[in-house]
Amino acid sequence: MENKNKVLLKVENAGVSINDKSLVKGVSFEIKQGEIVTLIGPNGSGKSTTAKIALGIYKKIDGKVKKYTDKIGYVPQKISIDWTLPIRVLDFMTLTEELTQDQINIALNLTGVEHLKDKSLSNLSGGEFQRVLIARAISKKPELLVLDEPVQGVDFKGEIALYKLIKQISEKMKCGILLISHDLHVVMSATDFVLCLNGHVCCSGAPHKVVKDSKYKELFGDRASNILSLYEHKHDHTHSQDGTIDKK
Amino acid sequence: MLDDFFIRALLAGIGIALITGPIGCFVIWRRLSFFAGTLAHSALLGVTMALVFELNIAFSVFLISAVLAIFLLQLQTKTNLPNDALLGLLAHSSLAIGLVIIGFLTTIRFDIMGLLFGDILAVSQSDLLLIWGGGVFILIILKIIWKPLFASTINYDLAKAEGMNPDRYNAIFTILMAAIIAVSIKIVGLLLITGMLIIPAALARNISNNPLQMVILSTIGGLLSILIGLFSSLEFNTASGPSIITAALILFCFSLIKFKKYSELKK
Predict the structure, then answer these.
(1) How far is CA A98 from the centre of its chain?
(2) Contacts 24+ apart (CB under 8 A), B148-151
């Protein structure tokens, strides 16, 4: 099924070094329409760097990156907006693309922050801002979405809803997604392809293959391998608030 | 009372305010206040170069500012010094070189006060043409590059990732700043052009909540400063350039008071 879909991005043996120190090297992967590729790895393993390589943010890189689309939406890991700049959510939404009021409303509504439209960006909480960032990235109907820890600071309920939304977007809009996440549950359940990074690619493949890889276990510990079984087991019961089991 | 020279001064001032209003906002947003000052300082060298080689003053100032900007970019990549140190180094050394060269020009009488503080009352028709022609050109370019420049100002990575080419627009903006200094040097002088870029935009920041509003208010603030400054310099017989900046400062103080009241209302 995947073969019919257009390749959006191809990264071949790419890497980047700053001041002769390699940040990440030898990364290869491709993203097709409707596919979610996820980067996992410990802090400082080069996940954000890899995303930036794919986006062409670095001037000098090793290897090759081929982009087959210009319609890209990006949610960076860190964004520091200078508060000397008065800017509302509304102004931020149209930063790189002209949008109609309807398009803005729909996108903000999807991430649950439509009511913040006329608010100043500087008055938003971390989680609210993160939702606005996601709304902005999806509002331009991108073919490729790059999400660098998109739900950081979002409340627990919102996190689940946003991941659901991301999954929906990839399915409905046929959008390719490069996702960076620390949430192994989400990664393993919603992803088509996983790259496990630690300065280089430790292991990669479909989620069920990666969790069995010894290098993955080395990096994340034995418990992480059980992630999949945790997710895959079928619930035949639910828990009520006090923890007692209600049989279905 | 409204002599011909005064009308010309008003027209020149209005032209300057119309350009410094929007450009000044970007100067503040991009934290380029000190950079604007450095470019203005280098203008003295530009003027002396014009005298030595018999060039057009505006052209020479523009050239020197542009060279300085490129030199700064080079220094930034080659040294580990912080930006403000590099800017200070360039500002004062270009000013010094300019003054040294003036020392050699014994045959030319040089109005250094006029250069430092501007002489808006001595504006000629060709100056007016330069300001309005150059000003329209600068504003048209700014309008064209507004979106990518604004996106690059907000966040470099985001702009670059989504195909905005921030490096190009940062460079174009630097050239625009050199151009604005070149066209306005004779009117407000090199010490006051930075003031005209920063103070109206700063007062606008206090009372605006979105970028476009800030640009409009900054332009209005600049226009008011010019009008109040020029009329009071005529009334009290004070130097015109400093009077304009003083007027701008007074307006800035008013914007602070208003801002406080506004935020109290919100509570």
Answers:
(1) 24
(2) B149/B26, B149/B173, B150/A95, B150/B211, B151/A95, B151/A96
Whether B168 and chain A come into contact, CB under 8 Å, resolves to no
Residue of A16, A89, A96 to mutate, interface with B, max B Cβ within 10 Å: A96
Are B240 and B54 in contact by the 8 Å Cβ rule? The answer is: no
Closest to A5 in 3D by CA, of A206, A171, A188: A171
| Across A17-25, average pLDDT | 86
Global ipTM: 0.81
Compute CA A10 distance to the chain's CA centroid, rounded to the nearest angstrom: 17
All residues of chain A having their beta carbon less than 8 Å from the beta carbon of residue B151 are 95-96
Test A96 with B211 for CB contact under 8 angstroms. no
Q: Tell me which residue of B64, B41, B67, B66 sits closest to B52, measured CA to CA.
A: B64
Task: Assess B203–A contact: CB distance below 8 Å, yes or no.
Answer: no
Chain B nearest-CA distance from A211, in A, is 31
Tokens of A202: 């430790």
Domains of chain A: 2-71+144-151+172-247 (3.40.50.300)
CATH superfamily of B4-190: ABC transporter involved in vitamin B12 uptake, BtuC (1.10.3470.10)
Grade residue B262 by pLDDT with cuts at 50, 70 and 90.
low
Q: Which residues of chain A lie closer than 8 angstroms to B153, CB-CB?
A: 85
Chain A residues within 8 A of B164 when measuring between CB atoms: 96
Confidence of residue B47 (pLDDT cuts 50, 70, 90): confident
* Average pLDDT taken over every residue of chain A: 84
Task: Give A-chain residues touching B28 at CB under 8 angstroms.
Answer: 84
pLDDT tens digits, residue range B59-98? 999 999 989 988 888 888 888 888 889 999 999 999 899 8
Residue B108 — pLDDT band, cuts 50, 70, 90? Answer: low
Q: What was the pLDDT predicted at A2?
A: 45
Chain B positions touching A85 (Cβ under 8 A) are: 29, 153-154, 211
Condensed to tens digits (0 to 9), the pLDDT of residues A168-199 reads 888 888 889 999 988 888 788 888 899 988 88
Across the A:B interface, residue pairs with CB atoms under 8 Å apart total: 72
CA dist list (Å): A126 to A33, A117, A160, A178, B29: 30, 16, 17, 22, 22
